[in-house]
Amino acid sequence: MSEVYLSLGSNLGDREENLKRAVFELEHWEGIILKKLSPIYETKPVGYLNQDMFLNIAVEVETNIGPYDLLKVVNEIEKKLKRERLIRWGPRTIDIDILLYDDIELKDEVLTIPHPRMWERAFVLIPLSDINPFIKKGDVYIKDLIAELPDKEGVKLYKENWYNGV
Ligand SMILES: Nc1ncnc2c1ncn2[C@@H]1O[C@H](COP(=O)(O)OP(=O)(O)OP(=O)(O)O)[C@@H](O)[C@H]1O
Ligand SMILES: Nc1nc2c(c(=O)[nH]1)N=C(CO)CN2
């Protein structure tokens, strides 16, 4: 089994319900074991600023599904939650990014792991550090990366203990 960390975000529709439904899908997917969930954070949009606030979480799963097939699972769950890609980095009911998959490094036209922008995003690293503060980029712990990120002020705790299924 592999240890995988995911980042989930929603800023369209019932954001919390979208996150719950996505986690429910992951939890009940064959070959995926839900291990840890972060609290929910409300976060200022980065990249494309003219959109509503996001709710973001990080999730740890164990899985025997390989990285490329896991991406297909992620895309299927996004489709199930009616994700539409209207504007790059724009509003979405749900977005699921694969952050880390064991210690593998992948970079091709389909999949890049570690996720290429995770280290510069407080909305990713703050929930991730709740799950595992010992994750490092090289020799640097993520809490020390967070301290340097300009968007860390835009990440606010929204709700803890928000999911009953785990
Ligand atoms: N680690 C990854 N996790 C999820 N998708 C990835 C990853 N690496 C590459 N991709 C590819 O990126 C494509 C576009 O992803 P998406 O439209 O969700 O980008 P985004 O989430 O809006 O922006 P960002 O990638 O900056 O978070 C996906 O269809 C997928 O093929
Ligand atoms: N706060 C926040 N900003 C974003 C997010 C997100 O999940 N949260 N996702 C993006 C594209 O993946 C772009 N910008």
UniProtKB/TrEMBL annotation:
EC number: 2.7.6.3
One Pfam match: HPPK
Residue ranges of the TM segments: none
GO MF annotations, alphabetized: 2-amino-4-hydroxy-6-hydroxymethyldihydropteridine diphosphokinase activity; ATP binding; kinase activity
Xref: InterPro entries: Hppk (IPR000550), Hppk_sf (IPR035907)
Keyword Nucleotide-binding: yes
Boundaries of every 7,8-dihydro-6-hydroxymethylpterin-pyrophosphokinase domain copy: 88-99
Keyword entries, A-Z: ATP-binding, Folate biosynthesis, Kinase, Nucleotide-binding, Transferase
GO biological process, one term: folic acid biosynthetic process
Catalytic activity: 6-hydroxymethyl-7,8-dihydropterin + ATP = (7,8-dihydropterin-6-yl)methyl diphosphate + AMP + H(+)
CDD domains: HPPK
Pathways per UniProt: Cofactor biosynthesis; tetrahydrofolate biosynthesis; 2-amino-4-hydroxy-6-hydroxymethyl-7,8-dihydropteridine diphosphate from 7,8-dihydroneopterin triphosphate: step 4/4
Keyword ATP-binding: yes
NCBIfam families to which the protein is assigned, alphabetical: folK
PANTHER family, A to Z: 2-AMINO-4-HYDROXY-6-HYDROXYMETHYLDIHYDROPTERIDINE PYROPHOSPHOKINASE
Protein name listed in UniProt: 2-amino-4-hydroxy-6-hydroxymethyldihydropteridine diphosphokinase
